[in-house]
Design goal:
Strand order of the largest sheet: 2-3-4
Number of helices: 5
Oligomer: single chain
GO molecular function: DNA binding; DNA-directed RNA polymerase activity
Keywords: DNA-directed RNA polymerase, Nucleotidyltransferase, Transcription, Transferase
Protein name: DNA-directed RNA polymerase
Strand content: 5-15%
Distance between the termini: 32 Å
Number of strands: 5
Family: Belongs to the RNA polymerase beta' chain family.
EC number: 2.7.7.6
């Protein structure tokens, strides 16, 4: 068999790179656990970091220079969050005082799923809130709801993460964006 480029045999040909255009995004097996960790650190709805910046764990994580270790510490601070902290990004300074301006990070207030990996699939498991009335007619259907996340849905969440949040996670937005950890 001869190489179409060099007309050399298989022993003499150095090999050539190929390029495939995929019909839809898919998970890269080498980055699946890293993508899962990042997804567990950010809101599934608005892509803001779930951990509170004023929390001791978060402040300790920001002192770590190693990106992998920083991501692990922020993951520890974010794992316990079941809801994105709501609030508008407004100044919380009173007009009467001369205190420095403090902005809240904002957030959407959405409930956060528990994310897991099963093979090459990412699974989101939501816990439904029970209704206040315990009437038999108004009881919710199941207590938990599971759904498989498509790589496209995960990619959309990763693309919405701000550059500021990338830096807080220990990633360089110029060279290491999580949305590049998908095959497209």
């Amino acid at each position: 068999m001869k190489c179409e480029t060099y007309m050399a045999n298989m022993a003499e040909c150095p090999g050539h790179f190929g390029h495939l255009e995929l019909a839809k995004p898919m998970f890269h097996i080498g980055f699946l656990k890293t993508v899962l960790s990042i997804m567990q650190c950010v809101c599934f709805n608005c892509s803001k970091i779930l951990a509170d910046e004023e929390e001791h764990k978060f402040k300790q994580a920001q002192k770590i220079r190693n990106p992998k270790n920083r991501l692990k510490k922020i993951l520890d601070a974010s794992k316990s969050k079941t809801k994105c902290e709501g609030g508008d990004e407004i100044d919380t300074q009173d007009q009467d005082t001369d205190e420095p301006v403090k902005k809240s990070r904002g957030g959407c207030g959405a409930q956060q799923p528990k994310l897991t990996i099963e093979g090459m699939k990412m699974i989101a498991e939501y816990k439904l809130q029970k209704k206040k009335n315990d009437d038999p007619e108004q009881l919710p259907e199941p207590v938990e709801r599971k759904q498989q996340l498509s790589a496209k849905r995960v990619l959309n969440v990763l693309k919405r993460i701000s550059d500021e949040d990338y830096k807080l996670l220990g990633l360089n937005p110029k060279y290491a964006r999580p949305d590049w950890m998908k095959l497209q």
